[in-house]
Amino acid sequence: MNNAMKIAVLIPCYNEEKAIARVVARFRAALPDADIYVYDNNSTDRTVDEARAAGAFVGSEPLQGKGNVVRRMFADIEADVYVMTDGDETYDAASAPLMVERLVADNLDMVVGTRLHSDVAEAFRAGHHFGNRLLSGAVRYIFGDRFQDMLSGYRVFSRRFVKSFPAISSGFETETELAVHALALRMPVAEIPTPYGARPQGSVSKLRTYRDGWRILWMIATLFREERPLTFFSIIFAVLALASIVLGTPVILTFMESGLVPRLPTALLSTGIMLAAFLSLASGFILDNVTRGRREIKRMMYLALPGPRPSGGRS
Hey, which of 30, 65, 157, 221 would disulfide with 93, CB 3.0 to 4.6 Å? Predict the structure, then answer.
């Protein structure tokens, strides 16, 4: 690994006093030349004191939610390579050098530490495992089959990824946004299996399974509409057109037999639905052109920044 490269470890935190000192110590041991940043998100315990005592640079983000903290960290911190992890001691710090090396050696923009093969039942409960596979599968189906563990919080990024990331989400759906950003711009990415452990005793997960699951699902739908508008609105067109045909066919058959339209409200409803269907399709074509322009701008911003590999070639 090139010693001239500046590495930053980013740890978004909320009420992690039980674990944060050990997380900082372990990442300092794994990446001794890295700067370690802990950004607190309105903790009510001793998270800030523990992080500062462990030697981390401590910042804060008053807007509640992991996505807000990630946005602030990406904006504030300057580095060549960014390692993002959680402050709950579940991710394996010893895997960080391998992930960084993979990013630099293969000139990638994101390396994800996957948790799908964890042997610790308490760390990755069956319900969370199922939800992760379901949501990751939805993203693979819509945007591309490149991530098995889309929701992992353990990632390594290039500078050009971080500084071109729009960061619109506010909560745990930020991992979905990170994945779709890479897929939309067709960035080079990779996944590496990493050990995943249970939280330390007394530490409580901030993930609310059903609420955050629905928020992630809503984020997937929002990004589907924004990044694939023609497909999104074509589906709406097909559903509305089918409904219009189902409603209108009996009216047309009756008119062909008798020359009368006895169910005028149904005929008007069917016509209105078909008009809405074609409006949806037209919206899809228009927004698809807008999205292409936005994607070109994001791509140019991304290309304006250097990749992770040093100018001398492989490290």
Answer: 30
